[in-house]
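User: Hello, beginner here. Can you help me understand these amino acid letters and fold codes? It all follows right here:
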Amino acid sequence: MIDEITGSELSGFKAKIRQSDVKIQNTVSTELENLIDLKNIGRYQLLKGKNIMTQDLNSPELTNDNLILIRKLLWGTQQELANAMGINEKTIRRIENKEQGVTDTFIDKLLVAYPELAESIEVQFDWVSLTFPDLTSKQVITDVLRMQESLFLERPTSQNFYTREMAFAGEKNIYIQDFAPVKNPETQAMDQKFGTTLYLTGKGTRLFEKVLLEQSMDWRDFFEKARLYRGHITRLDIAINDKWGLLNMNDLVKAVQEKRFWSKSKSYAVHGNVDDGWTVDFGKSPFVIRAYDKHKEQANKGYDTDVKTRVELELHQDKAEYVLNEWLNHDKKLVDITFGVLYTYLWFTNGKIDDQQLKSDAVRDVIEQTVEPMPAWSLLTALGKKMKFVREPKKQSVEQWVLQSVVPSLAVLKKTGHWHEIIEAINTVELSAEHEKLVMATTKNAITQASKQLNINFEKPTKKYNEDDEQGKGA
């Protein structure tokens, strides 16, 4: 019945029907309409007649090869692994010899025996953008974020057609863009055009997690609240942090160069080098999967991190909305959705994939049956669903602000021989109203309005904890 399929994975597909019989055509049209109405549907699902994309969003189970790799990474023998888990060595041997499968109970015991393994991979938000068609920036600050408006600096902007920007502590970490009020020439009244976009950058998400902590909220609470204000997600970046060093970027880049990978998107790009770190992008907006050397990236900026490699899902518009809906409306864990998407859209192998296989509609099925997977990538996707979605609240501090925003400029002035003039100016300068706001924003511990309504201990520890653990709320 289907004569031709046109379109792409990211934009969706249309199909031409071979037969002209009106009844058949109407039936097929209805079925195809149901299929392509799901914006995440792809050619592979369309040809297999699947109308629910999530049927394919399943991470693989841990295999015997995965267990062997884990044991090697833990530097343990079969007996040592069995002793640590409190089980018989025969079980380990049978699994590694493919005589027995890996059960969830086995994995749970493994993670209890090796806590460092349980903490080796984490999932967290790294960028969040929301639009609010009915609100001004000040309404977003006071009603949605519930932060203190006095800690935001107002300045003009021309970005994204907006005319005003409100930035927390003057930094582009938590900021909102909207339209500055203008005087009506006829009535002389100040008119305010509605419509805003809220941006939480990588650092901004960590700062905002401190806000959520102070308000005894989690990310799910926040997104549900944003929807009450007709907030629409425009970008959602989900970071998978590999703290174990499971993935090696040199190996991933080599696999890309040797065509030892399968991706739903045919678009990919490699950036960087061995010394400064590699970055590999798969796909284009509205959906990009990015892998890069996080430790080297931070070291180049003068920072330290316990994350070795990071894999990011950068989702825009409908793709972001799809993931958010799956999380909020279908009672799924974010880690399950994240690794399901990763497994569905990208796969690395040990052997080269034949060009003819890549052109096949059933290429993914063929690859999994005939080509050995890359052990590290296979283990990442298999372990992923057992990992945690974490919050890592950070508070704004004057020390952080000075070190990141002031010291670099002072260092330049010192090297150019104007240090004494700078010291003299510092001692005599009078701070402007905006400077006073900066002082407030970088020294106040309580940065939300929650203290007005709630009895909250603002000295709460800002330790990292599991978002999916209800005991972690307000911890």
